[in-house]
UniProtKB/TrEMBL annotation:
<keyword id="KW-0560">Oxidoreductase</keyword>
<dbReference type="InterPro" id="IPR029479">
    <property type="entry name" value="Nitroreductase"/>
</dbReference>
<dbReference type="GO" id="GO:0016491">
    <property type="term" value="F:oxidoreductase activity"/>
</dbReference>
<protein>
    <submittedName>
        <fullName>Nitroreductase family protein</fullName>
        <ecNumber>1.7.1.-</ecNumber>
    </submittedName>
</protein>
<comment type="similarity">
    <text>Belongs to the nitroreductase family.</text>
</comment>
<dbReference type="Pfam" id="PF00881">
    <property type="entry name" value="Nitroreductase"/>
</dbReference>
<feature type="domain" description="Nitroreductase">
    <location>
        <begin position="17"/>
        <end position="192"/>
    </location>
</feature>
<dbReference type="InterPro" id="IPR000415">
    <property type="entry name" value="Nitroreductase-like"/>
</dbReference>
Length: 216
């Protein structure tokens, strides 16, 4: 059985250009809990609205549970062949962690207690007063940011990923006991590729960028 041995000496440009969506994985290759935790600790340095960090992860690396997920993900084979599937979820009540986040900022010397107290009070009021659909948009954006960071962190370690929006979200939350407090953002298959992802054509920056005045 293979185990992960990875390095992080690759430049960002190489990582960004080498990352592709991979759908064929070595089913014998396992990622340890320790390495997955390291990878996720790198990913959670992603930015988020008011630094409220609404992402929550469910790492599914049990083979029976991957088999359970397979029909929910429309029988995409990477679900059962990859080392794991990371479900990225958005916490609609992430304001509950603000006191912890800003309390640690005070302990680290990043801000005085008064500032932290003000941030907690103001952001709690804001996040508890916005309509549910607005809050969902916030956690979808932040969930997208951390998802991209997961995929880049994985590639830097010599691992491959496949982001999946093609799954039955309602069946997923029911099958895995996810409460209404959390919304699924995406599933990310992660493991060691046995076949490279297909190369794809991207529009270049000049084709998608305007300067100072939007001209599309």
């Amino acid at each position: 059985m293979s185990t992960a041995v990875t390095t992080q000496s690759t430049s960002f440009t190489e990582v960004a250009r080498a990352r592709r969506s991979v759908r064929t994985y070595d089913p014998t290759y396992k990622i340890s809990k320790e390495e997955m935790t390291e990878l996720l600790n790198e990913a959670v340095t992603a930015p988020s609205s008011a630094n409220h960090q609404p992402w929550r992860f469910l790492v599914i690396d049990s083979q029976p549970l991957k088999e359970k997920l397979l029909p929910i993900a429309f029988n995409q084979q990477q679900v059962v062949e990859a080392s794991a599937v990371i479900a990225v979820l958005g916490d609609l009540e992430s304001h509950r962690m603000l006191e912890t986040i800003f309390g640690r900022a005070v302990e680290a010397g990043y801000m005085p207690q008064e500032t932290a107290d003000s941030f907690v009070a103001n952001y709690t009021k804001m996040y508890t007063s916005v309509p549910p659909e607005v809050m969902k948009k916030i956690v979808y954006v932040d969930g997208g940011l951390v998802s991209m960071q997961i995929m880049l962190a994985a590639k830097a370690r010599g691992l491959d990923t496949n982001p999946m929006g093609g799954y039955d979200a309602a069946k997923f939350v029911e099958a895995f006991g996810i409460s209404e407090r959390y919304v699924p953002v995406m599933l990310i298959a992660i493991g060691k590729a046995t076949k490279e992802g297909h190369p794809s054509i991207r529009l270049n920056a000049d084709e998608v960028t305007s300067w100072n005045e939007f001209k599309f």
